[in-house]
Write a structure and sequence with these properties.
With about 150 residues, the chain is mainly alpha-helical. It has three domains: about 40 residues; about 30 residues, no CATH class; about 80 residues, no CATH class. About 55% of the residues lie in helices and about 0% in strands. The chain has six helices and no strands. The longest helix has about 40 residues. The radius of gyration is 24 Å and the shape is elongated. The mean pLDDT is about 80.
Length: about 150
Amino acid sequence: MTPEQLKKINEAKAKAEKAKKDAPQNAAAARRKAEKKLEYVKSKPKENPLDAIEYTGNCETDAKAELEIIAKGPNSIDQQRKAIAQNNDTEFWFQVVFASREQKEAVLKALKLFEYGDKWIYGEEFAKVLGVDCPPAEFEPLRPRVDKRLLMLT
């Protein structure tokens, strides 16, 4: 091994030791941050405003009723900013890493999570298995933009 390689290995070991030492503090800070975020999550899911429509079977009448409700939708600047913030929030996940596949599979089996997947597990399912009450998420996806050039091709 070259001296440069040894230096890089020693730097990596030092970095790993520091991360190991700081892990409990970082976990506590992350827990506090998550608890603060949970305060902002509402316990009641949003209702679909289109559920109020009584469909007549006449396409023109039904479409007009839908458009009237959509036109009354959230148009204020604050509501738009909130929707953009929710759609761009990246703090909705965490990652757990093991040293080997065997370790990962042993933990998933012990927690009875293996049936939900071995790579990606929905948070609600994870919380349910652990016996944690998970508040419903308030999420309003942005409406997709229609590309007029592509629309002309249809």
